[in-house]
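Contributing new complexes? Match this layout with 1PR.
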Amino acid sequence: MEAPPFSSSCSSSPLSSTARILSSSSSSSSSLLFRRNSFSKTHYSAKFKSPRNLSVRASGDSVVTLLDYGAGNVRSVRNAIRYLGFDIKDVQTPEDILKADRLVFPGVGAFAAAMDVLNKNGMAEALCSYIEKDRPFLGICLGLQLLFESSEENGPVNGLGLIPGVVGRFDSSNGFRVPHIGWNALHIKNNSEILDDIGNRHVYFVHSYRAMPSDDNKEWISSTCNYGDNFIASIRRGNVHAVQFHPEKSGDVGLSILRRFLYPKSTTTKKPTEGKASKLAKRVIACLDVRANDKGDLVVTKGDQYDVREHTEENEVRNLGKPVELAGQYYIDGADEVSFLNITGFRDFPLGDLPMLQVLRYTSENVFVPLTVGGGIRDFTDANGRHYTSLEVASEYFRSGADKISIGSDAVYAAEEYLRTGVKTGKTSLEQISRVYGNQAVVVSIDPRRVYLKNPNDVEFKAVKLKNPGPNGEEYAWYQCTVNGGREGRPIGAYELAKAVEELGAGEILLNCIDCDGQGKGFDIDLIKLISDAVSIPVIASSGAGAVEHFTEVFTKTNASAALAAGIFHRKEVPVQSVKEHLLQEGIEVRI
Ligand code: 1PR
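Output block (do not edit by hand):
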C-alpha cells in the first residue's frame, strides 16, 4: 500500500503555510516511503572506466517527461536521459505534468524568472500537485531550490513552498570562492536510493545559492555538502528527489544516479572507493584549440606562444586531431572538464561557423562533464546587415551543448571601458550573458604577455617581482592583456582586467600566458598567484604544463582552482590519468 506523503494542497504564490504543514504531516507516512530496494553490489576495479560500459537500455515504459520552461540549456540533461535509453516527452501544458510517469525538472537560470514562468503558465500548481501525490520526481540544481519557501536571489522571491527554508547566497567573505564550481563530496544522511552508487566519489556542482539544513527541513535531507558551511546537496521523500549538483555532468557517477531514478530496478555496480572524496577537488581540464585548417576542415591545433603554424615551407596549421574524438577520449581518461576555444572566432562570425556548433552537439551526446566553448562571442552585424547580440551568439553555443561560454577579446574592451568610466552599462556581453545564464556560466579568458620592467613604478599597472629575472636581468614584470589571439596588446594589465571582469559578472577566469603557451616548462606561477589572490572567483591556470609535477606546483603555490593543459594531452606525452594519480600521491584531492 502506498501512503501519500503529503496531505496539503500547494499554493505557489504567495507563499502559504504549506511548507510547515508538509513538514509536520509527513513524518508518520515517511517511514512507509523510505523503502529500500536491494541491489546487487558487484565491485569492479578498473579506474577511469569508460562510462559507455555503464549504459543500460530501459525496457517497457521508457518515456521521461521533461519540464523545460525555456530559460536555458537543458540539452545535457536530454542527452544523458537519451544516453540511458529513454525517450523524452516535453511538458507543453500543466496536464502533461499531472499525467507524467516520471518527471525530471532541470531548473536553469535565475530563481525569480523561473518562478515567474511557472506561476504564469500554471505549471507551479501542477508541480505541487504532482509532488504531493508522491509521483516520481527529480529536480536538478534550481529544480531543487524552487521547492523551498523562498530565495534571496534578486529577492526575496517566493518559491513553491514545499520544503521549509530560504535559499541564500554562499558567503565569500570566509575565503571560499563563489560560485561554488567543481567536484565536491557528499555526506549521505538518509537512505536516498538514487545515491547508492556514489560511494566516496565526487559530483559536479555549479551554483552561487544554496539551501541550508535546519530542524524544519531535516526530514527531507538525503545528503549535504560542505563548502564553507554545510548546505543541502540533495533531498528525498518517497518518490520525490532533488539534487543541487548536476548528475548529467558528473560523469559515470552522475549517469548512475540518473539511471537509479529512471530505472529503479536496475542492478548497477558499486564503485570502488579508493581516493576518498572529502572536499572540493582540484580540477584537471583538457583544452582543445580549434580552427579550420587551410583545407577548411575543423581541426584541433596547438601553438607555441600562440603560433599554430608548422615551421615548414607549406606553413600549414598544425593538426593534432579531430575535436569530437579527442574530447571523447579525454572524458574517458578522466578530464574534469573539456574546453573548446575557437581560436579564429575573432575574425569569423561564430554562428557562421556551423561545424563548431556541430562539434558541440556531437560531443555533448557522449561527454558527461562540463563543456566550455569560447571564441568570437561579441555583438556582430553580418554581410546582410542582420545584427546579432553577443547574447544570441552565446545562446546558440548553450543550445548546442555548452555549459559555460568563454569570452576573450570582448571582455578586454568591456573592462577597459568600465575602468575608464566607472559605470556598469549592463550592455556588455559579459553583463548580458551572466544576467541571463548566471555568473557561473561565464568564463573570461585572459591572454596576457609578460612585459619586463627594471622598476615596478615604471607602469600604472600592477607589476610583480619575478621568481626568475627577465632576459636583461629585469626583476619585475607586468602582464599586458591582448586581444585577437595575442595579436594586439591593450593598455590594461591582467590584474586590472581580472578585478574588473569579476565586478562585471564573470564567474571564472581562464588564465593563459602567451610566454608559457606550448613551452612545457611549467605554469607562470608569478602570474597565477597574482590573479588567484586578487579575485574571489575560481581561477583556471593555463599554459606551460609539461610534466605531472607542474600541476602539483601550481596547486601548492597558488590558489588556482583548476589547471588546464593542451599540448601534453594531444601529443599523448602525459595522459590525464597520470596527472591525477600524481596529484593524489602528493595529497591533492582530485576526482577519480
Ligand atoms: O577573443 O573571445 O574570440 O576568444 C578567443 C579564444 O581563443 C581565447 O580564449 C584565446 O585564449 C584563444 N586563442 C586565440 N588564439 C589562440 C592561439 O593559440 N593562437 N589559444 C588561442 C589560446 C591558449 C590555451 C592553451 C593553453 C595550454 N590557447 O588555451 O590551450 O596555453 O597550452 P599548453 O598546455 O600546450 O601550454 P575571443
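Reviewers usually confirm one structural detail per submission. For this one: Residues 287, 289, 302-303, 306, 308, 341, 343, 345-346, 374-377, 406-410, 445, 447, 485-486, 512, 517-518, 542-545, 565-567 surround 1PR (CB under 6 Å).
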